[in-house]
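FIELD: query
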Amino acid sequence: MNFDRQLSRAAVLALALGAASGALAQAGYPTKPVKIVVPYSAGGPADIYARFVGDRLQKATGQPFVIENRPGAGAIIGTDAVAKSTPDGYTLLMMSNTHTVNESLFTKKPYTLLRDLTPIAPVNYSDLILVVHPSVPANNLKELIALAKAKPGALNYASSGPGTPYHMAGELFKAMAGIDVVHVPHKGSAEARTDVLAGNVQMMFDAITTMAPLAQSGKVRAIATSGKTRSSITPNVPTLDEAGLSGYDAVIWLGTMAPAGTPKPVIDALNANIQKIVSAPDVKDAWAKQGAVAMHMSPEEFGKFMEQDIQKWAKVVKFSGARVD
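FIELD: result
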């Protein structure tokens, strides 16, 4: 009986992947390698999941999906390169809510997100986790806030750069807690993480998918998570909301875009294929163990989602006073 169920499950997966591959074939795409630009350094969530999705797309289409890391300027450098590339489906962008934040955080940008790029599909979202170096004399959120208030400007928090979820989670934390903590931007999340592990910077908000194992091994101390409910992979760690910052909510989500003007059949086919990938039971199970949740939307729904996220973070930027000229 179990063997029959396994066969049935395998058949369903094969049909799903076949349908997605067929959608791409009907679009006459791709006939050559596709580049996915990740506007962040290697080792962070966007890079990890871009490589995962790219590998699955390659298996489905028979064409290479090559990852190119182009970090810098809060994801603006790599994003601008994609926005200015030929809209033929052969240059794609792995993006995050850094991009929706940047629409209000940066006073000057060489592109406008939903004008110069077009949505393809979301990938997943995960909570952030606030951690401190073990040398910091604070075991919970209340003690950390008290320490920051006792020593204004003495504590630092790391991020992967202006406008990233790590940065904005920190700014929201500062504003809601009424504390003075210094932002220390890095070129990427890997560099920020390394500085916190070394004790060069006292704390950071990081993706739970990458930081939770380090907290569980004692290399950092987990203070709280950023979502509305506790994460299943850190059930003993409270949310910031329940630990005292009522209403706190900030996550990191990832998605894909292409240059504006990319043919709709290509966008629709890519969306269908990516949704099949993130819907696969083995993918959902693996991501759940990492603290990531798959997202499912059409290109049009994803565009509306981004519009709402731009408005949400514009309010946070105004509330926190964070700006980048």
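FIELD: remark
The beta strands are 34-38, 65-69, 91-96, 117-132, 156-159, 182-185, 203-207, 221-225, 251-259, 292-294.
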